Amino acid sequence: MLKKSLLLFSAACASASAESVSVYFGNGCFFDQQHTMVTRFEKLLLKRSGSDVTSVSAYAGGDSSSSDLCYHNEGEVEDYGKLGHAEVVELFIPDDKSLKDAAKVFFEDFTQLAPGQWTRQDVFDLGPEYRALVGIPGGVSGPYYSAIVEANSEVHNLNLKEGQGGDDDTIDTGVVWVMDSLKFPAYQAEVCLQFSDDNPAFSEPYSEKYHSLRDALFEEGTLRNTTCPTNYIC
Predict the structure, then answer these.
(1) Domains in the chain and their CATH numbers?
(2) Contact 197, 210 (CB under 8 A)
(3) Based on the number of CB atoms within 10 Å of its own CB, is 17 exposed (0-12), middle (13-18) or buried (19 or more)?
C-alpha cells in the first residue's frame, strides 16, 4: 500500500518531469470526471495531447488492497464498491501550481443547491462509490494540501475532511474527502471503461478523437489489461 500509486503508469511517469506527482479526483461517475480532466485541464492548461495525456479512470479510497479492482460483475470478483472504493480519475501533475489549477477545475464541477450548499452534478449515481474525494501524497498532513485548500477557497469553499477509507457518500453535503494517496492508492479501471461517453442525460457523446485516447494510451503502456471478468458495462 505504501508503494507509489499505480505502478502501471510507468510509461506516463517516464514522459512526465521528475517532479511529477500522482493525484486523483472523484465526484460521481468517472466517465465525466475523466473527460473534464482531459479537456479542461490537461489539454487546455497543460497543452498535453495524444499519449501525453495521463488522466485514467480508476478506483480509490477503500481500505483494502488488491492487485486489481473491478467494476460490478456477476461473480462479484474484487468489486470496487463492496471493497469500499470510489470511482476516481488519476493523473500526473507537474508542480504545485498545476495541482491548484487541476483542483479548481474539479471544484468548479459542483452544483449549488442553496447559498453555501453544494452537490455533484451526477445526481443519478448514488452511494459511496460516487463520493467526492481528492487523493494527494500525505493527505491533509502532506505538502500538497495547501494547494487544494487555496483552490477550494477560490471556487466554492467546500467542506474538506480527512478521509479514513471506505467513507460515506457526499451528495448534497458539500463534503470532499481528502485522502492520503500513499495509504489509499488508486487502481486502474478496466481498459473498456476508459475514455467512454458519459450518461446521455448529462452530455452528448464525446468526440472520436477523445475516444481514440484509449488505444493511444494502451499502445503507450499507460493502460494495461486487468484480470477482471466481464462487467455490466463492457
Answers:
(1) 7-220 (3.30.1060)
(2) no
(3) exposed
